[in-house]
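Document type: protein sequence-to-structure record

Subject area: structural biology

Format: plain text, a pair of labelled lines:
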Amino acid sequence: MKRASPPNFDQTAFKQALGQFATGVTVITTRAASGQLIGITASSFNSVSLNPPLVLWSLATRSASMPVFRVNSHYVVNVLAASQLELCKRFATVKGDRFEGVSHAEGDTGMPVLDGALAWFECHNRSRYEEGDHVIFVGEVERCGVHENAAEIAPLVFQNGQFHGLKQL
């Protein structure tokens, strides 16, 4: 098999090009063996398969949350609404207890489902693939749900280093 050619661009150019792709924003949540709730903001979420129902997301190998996500059997992908921008920022930047004051419920596996999420996917941590400086997590969806007013709620979107809400065309 022929190998890839060396890139003809620097990391800054690569980030700029990637930034043009608009992505939805999620908070991935789980519970550590100690009982501590863990959550991180991620825009690297995608569907993989309808049968079986599979989704994927990725996490930097250097993330402080990596040891928990690597070994846990379950996690929840919470798709954020545009009105949840502060929640997005909290799970991306706050040190300490990110769940303090955050309204949530326990899913069937005891993992936190964020109140007000546009949609959620309760996943079994099916497989992990180390690629470059990230680990790709593939989750088998055991349960999912959609906000009762989803048709009227704008999703939170990230593009070109900024957050947006979408409007119908």
The chain has a mean pLDDT of 94. The chain has one domain: 24-149. The radius of gyration is 16 Å. Residues 24-149 form a domain with the Pnp Oxidase; Chain A fold (CATH 2.30.110.10).
